[in-house]
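Narrative of activities, Objective 1.

The group set out to show that a structural description can be obtained from nothing but a protein's sequence at a throughput compatible with the screening campaign. Below is one input-output pair from the validation batch, recorded exactly as produced.
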Amino acid sequence: MGQRAAIATAGNGADAAALEPLLVQLLKLAAMINRPMEDGVAAPNGLSLNELRIMMCLHGEGACAGHDITELMAIPAMNVSRAFATLTQRGWIEPAIDPANRRRRPVRLSAEGTRACLRMEADIDKVAHDLLGMLGATEATALGRSIDAVIGRLAQWPAEHPR
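Output recorded for this entry:
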């Protein structure tokens, strides 16, 4: 049975072992996607990859505490702390208040940080087009649904697999 047929069968629960090659492909993709983002977006804007990832997270999610970003973006806590220091120094992030938990120390994009994110959109669009532009509309929609499904399962992972 070919890889595509095995994966199609596994998606119905018939052969879960056939999903292993797909998982390996996802791991490879996750490792490789950083290079174009670093070369095409982070470096031209004077950011480290972690700083860029944090900016994108705050732009999309809103105010987050360091431990939230560590969990959401899989960035080690020490690297988040360093990036926070640099982004604060640049004036791109600022403290936020969590009225429900005053001990929590979230940060958010400052007005200048929001403007910086908007300036980076052209670079992000170029990387997106370079990497995904060959997909047809149907393929792009299917990829988006698949990614959402995997992210949904990843969000359930900690509760289902406590350390």
